Please model this.
Amino acid sequence: MSIIVDVEYARRISPRLLLFKQRGSHLWNFRCPLCGDSKKSKTKARGYFYKNNKSNAIFFSCKNCDASQSIGSFIKKLDPTLYREYILAKYSNENPNTKEPDFSEFKKHPVFKKKINLPTIESLPEDHAAKQYLLKRELPRAKFSSLFYAADFSSFIDELVPAHGKNLIKGDSRVVIPFYDEKNDLLGVQGRAISNSAIRYITIKLSEDYRKLFGLDKVDFTKKIYVVEGPFDSMFLDNSIATMDGALYSVVQNLGEHDYVFVFDNESNNPQIVKHIKETIAMGHNVCVWPKEIVQKDINDMIKAGHSASEVQHIIDCNTFNNLRAKLEFERWKKI
Model:
């Protein structure tokens, strides 16, 4: 029965593994997430799940970094929550004489569902600085009930994540953007400064193991998914998620293969963005390459310039390319 559980959890962890493919009845191949596999080639996949005949269990190995371990140890590194489910499943399928698994690690670090104990932007007076900031950015009012205001972001984070380890400024007021998982459990928050600040965005996860993705609680994986960098930009698009960093293609490793459109900021002279778009095209993904008549640097700026949300979405759809056409449009677009 042990290998049945191993096979089931190989399937369950597979959406987190790039280029995951089954090669045999008990053999699976994918890019190794421990070493990154190959920085030069995005098509190399040297990580494997395989059956160890001696123990009748599934093991992991990588032919690049030479890592070798049980599938349980592998899952524990990638997804501690799934690992706990795996241990419970393994134990329930063993014979009655099997030693009870040690759950002390989980007892020492219990996971509680956390809530945001702050006023919503919707509840603030119309002339409040935080509400005025979002109104000037022309964010949809319908989103104000899911955004919050922290008069002292540092104190709020100290209460929410006591061991966060960040050096935050006392009295720093920010708009708080929470991000949740597919089960609507809080993963973390992003604080956006509403005044002049050296650090515009501060992102805090409740656990280092949690994914840093905004919109998982709303996204429909059966439809086209627009991937952007910032949560505010995602609020203007249908079925969109935000990575909260420039490496948009990281969602593939976190969520598996889906019908993505990667929508980078329109900064053709930004070396980091140019690099990320080039890498995304090389992976074969769909990428929006902004037309030359669009001069604003991101979606929110396009809205502020007078474009409607539906118009921006139409522009994206009309300028989404992949493979050779994407390379041609990308060379036309970039300025470095």
Observations:
- Residues 80-93 form the longest helix (14 residues).
- The CA atoms of residues 149 and 192 lie 10 Å apart.
